[in-house]
Amino acid sequence: MATTSASPFAFHVFLSFRGQDTRKTFTDHLYAALVQAGFQTFRDNESIERGKYLNSELPKAIEQSRISIVVLSKTYASSTWCLDELVTILECKKTHGNDVLPVFYDVEPSEVRKQVGSFGEAFERYENEVEEEGDLERRMELAKRLDGWKAALLQVADLTGMVLKNQADGRESKFIQKIVEVVGDKMKRTVLNDAPHLIGLDLRAKDINSWLRDESNDVGIVAICGIGGIGKTTIAKHLYNLNFERFKGSSFLASVREVSKQPDGLVRLQRQLLSDILKGKKEKIHNVDQGIVRIKEALRRIKVLVVLDDVDQVEQLDAVLGMRDWLYPGSKIIITTRRKQLLKASEFHTVHEVIKMDNIESLELFSWYAFGQDHPIEGYMHYSERVVHYCDGLPLALQVLGSSLSGKSIGVWKSALEKLKAIPEGQILKKLKLSYDSLQDDHDKNLFLDIACFFVGKDKDWTSTILDGCEFFTTIGIHNLIDRFLLRVGPGDNKLWMHHLIQDMGREIVRQESTKEPGKRSRLWHKEAFDVLSEKTLNNIRLTGGYHEFPKKLTWLCWHGFPSRTIPTDCPIQNLVALDMRYSSLKTVWKGTKLLGSLKMLDLSHSYGLVSDVLDFSLVPNLERLVLKHCINLIEVPESIGVLQRLVLLNLKGCQNLRKLPTTIHHLKSLEELILSGCSKLYDLDSTKPPTSTQTLRIAIYRMVLFQRILVA
């Protein structure tokens, strides 16, 4: 019986034939046998009005048929109608991937290919008509049409077909039975259930689709990658449906990551692959190694299209796909993955990273799910745009929220939008959390949560310095997060960025640690942190009492608007890696001789009380970044700054009363960036040369009044 799988096709079979030869005999019997077998079959006198045939209905009917059976009989070429139909059939094969089965009824493939015999006689008449045509434009049109027919006959004759004379001993009944069996075999390779609304998909998949339709013998592997919910599987399914019938064998292995976790999961995937490409033949496989041998044998025999969906380990590729040289010429492999590192471990023809949808596409996709049409209904545009903004181009989120809000009142929409500000939608969260769950160790998971809660939009190097002080292996950890598309680094600004739904997912993981009592969570941010501190509910820290009650291993202290003139001696700052006291009332950072050997970053911007005695820099020998922006009363920087052999950045932007730089500045061997913009009273730079050993030093000197010259070696 014919397949009942969801399909974009209106017909299983399109019959192309010369009515004068076979309508009431062979083709009629074939049609009846196909219908009896359960295949919805198109033929012109059954399915459409003949007057519409040459207009829009013909290409539509052919395009909507999975297989076109072309019955090539003695007088087939005598019908220009049939020849035009054949051209259309082959165009649909090329552009849409429809299958074509030529049936040679009382003719040989060589007669069709070389246009001899009855086919030669027909073309001799057509060529005479071209020669006799007096109108030049008409003659050129006929000649072009004639060339198209010849090319079509050559192409169809080269396809794998069925010849009456060579099969079933020339007996028509047996021949028809064999044709029905072949159609049945082709139908077993069913299309996949495509997403109902494929907005912008053809454009996104255009390059891969062209690659799949390349008729060369090149073997290729393409990776489709991106964050969860971005549409990787949807694209892969769509491409598979468009192209699988171009290959002798095909297989779509879904959810490879999940299946491989199960007992004998890889063996199950191997069995499915072999069953698919061998058209239902069951292979007895008892272990992965045995499966690899069988797959190697099968892949070398036939041209295949294989899709491996959601791969996250190289071992999965090795077990199911093996080596590239196993593949038969012309075979194509597509994998989808959330892991960039996987792409470096294998040999790929190309890597296609799926980008998020733009606002126009997003609104259309959301509208289909929310309203059943391509735009919002009256009164809902504003709220629809808010949802689209929240989803930020992620198709999964647009589909889930569109479906959940469909048919609801504006009041419900308002409430849902408010809830989304605090709690992510469950289905979206579950899908995105798969990438977090796949992280191999707790260090990476904690690093992800810290970045999601505190460091999105922050400089990568600045963040790494802080988190390294917390005993994170930040460099490799950030690499692992980028690998799983959980994090990216801005190419122009070196800042850490996440899709905001990924960030929401991370924060929701922390919120779930204690939904009722924020003080019991591992991390606090923004309003909840303020509320917890205000109500004094945070364990181990109180706002009353002495500074000695701060955590002993405090590594990052960020206190904007710090009210004291100096940091008290009982404040446990000896383990600080980063100190951020912008907008403070400090006049001196601290007094005494307490060595801060771990401090790498110090930001005192907008601390208007700083004049000259900032601090003894010999107490912070490992400082790498010093930021004193807009310390408008700062007159000079202490000469002790010269001991900072690791200082990379010195930012004095907007220090409008700064008179001179310390003479020891040339000792700063590691200095890469010196920012003096807005230092309008700075003078005599000639005596304070930057370090001569610095290879590249960026100096910002805008809006300096008295500037003679800076010598950079």
UniProtKB/TrEMBL annotation:
Pfam families: NB-ARC (PF00931), TIR (PF01582), WHD_ROQ1 (PF23282). The keyword Heme does not apply. Keywords: Leucine-rich repeat, NAD, Plant defense, Repeat. Residues 9-187 form the TIR domain. GO terms for biological process: defense response; signal transduction. The keyword Aminoacyl-tRNA synthetase does not apply. GO terms for molecular function: ADP binding. Transmembrane segments: none annotated. PANTHER family: LEUCINE-RICH REPEAT-CONTAINING PROTEIN, TMV RESISTANCE PROTEIN N-LIKE. This is TIR domain-containing protein. It comes from Escallonia rubra. The lineage of its organism: Eukaryota, Viridiplantae, Streptophyta, Embryophyta, Tracheophyta.
